[in-house]
Amino acid sequence: MEKAKPVPPKVIFFDVNETLLDLTAMRSSVGEALGGRNELLPLWFSTMLHHSLVDSTTQRFHTFGEIGVASLLMVAEIEGISLTQEQAKTAIVTPLRSLPPHADVRSGLQALKDKGYTLVSLTNSSNQGVYTQFKNADLLEFFEHRLSVEDINLYKPDLRTYAWAAEKMGIKPEDAMLVAAHGWDIAGAKQAGWQAAFIARPGKVLYPLAIAPDYNVNDLNELVEMLPKQ
């Protein structure tokens, strides 16, 4: 028997990079910075995520962009690739500001708003960074609020980040839903008592040891079909 779906959320929170925005352009520029060695991209991203959590657990904070640059320099040093800080910054920051949305995003977000849902972004990126991304991707109109870990100096998937976001919106954890393409983000949201929907973007899988998400979909429009009107 299929597990019953939870009560519809009061607020739907969205991760941004890869969930809503297509990172293909940034992957290309980072790969070029690493001498065309695109096989190093997963190492760079995991190094960046790892050290964002190092900041959280050691009670320090740098922006995700700063950690991304530092991580790219680390990977380059490990692999013996010559790379300056300015080159690393250009490879990450320039394309990150103008990433396009995935093909399903605009229609999916509009359909969720039409169904009466409150949409909020919740990102490890900076406030200015996500504003610029949404402005360039023409997504600003869909979101009632944009929340950044920059305001509490704690990166997802720290459970305190989800607790803060729910409190910020004045709702209980069970009334929040996270939509994300990252298994680690889904793991954090579920452990924090949230509902969660995993979007299986290319190359993305769930963490098998985490609590399973409430919804597992291929794109945002599929999620829309599964959620009732408010």
From TrEMBL:
InterPro entries membership: 2-HAD, HAD-like_sf, HAD-SF_hydro_IA, HAD_sf, PGP-like_dom2, S-2-haloacid_dehalogenase
Catalytic activities: an (S)-2-haloacid + H2O = a (2R)-2-hydroxycarboxylate + a halide anion + H(+)
One function term, GO molecular function aspect: (S)-2-haloacid dehalogenase activity
Superkingdom to which the source organism belongs: Bacteria
UniProt keyword annotations, A-Z: Hydrolase
Role this protein plays: Catalyzes the hydrolytic dehalogenation of small (S)-2-haloalkanoic acids to yield the corresponding (R)-2-hydroxyalkanoic acids.
Family matches, as NCBIfam families: HAD-SF-IA-v2, HAD_type_II
Listed name of the protein: (S)-2-haloacid dehalogenase
Biological source species: Alteromonas stellipolaris
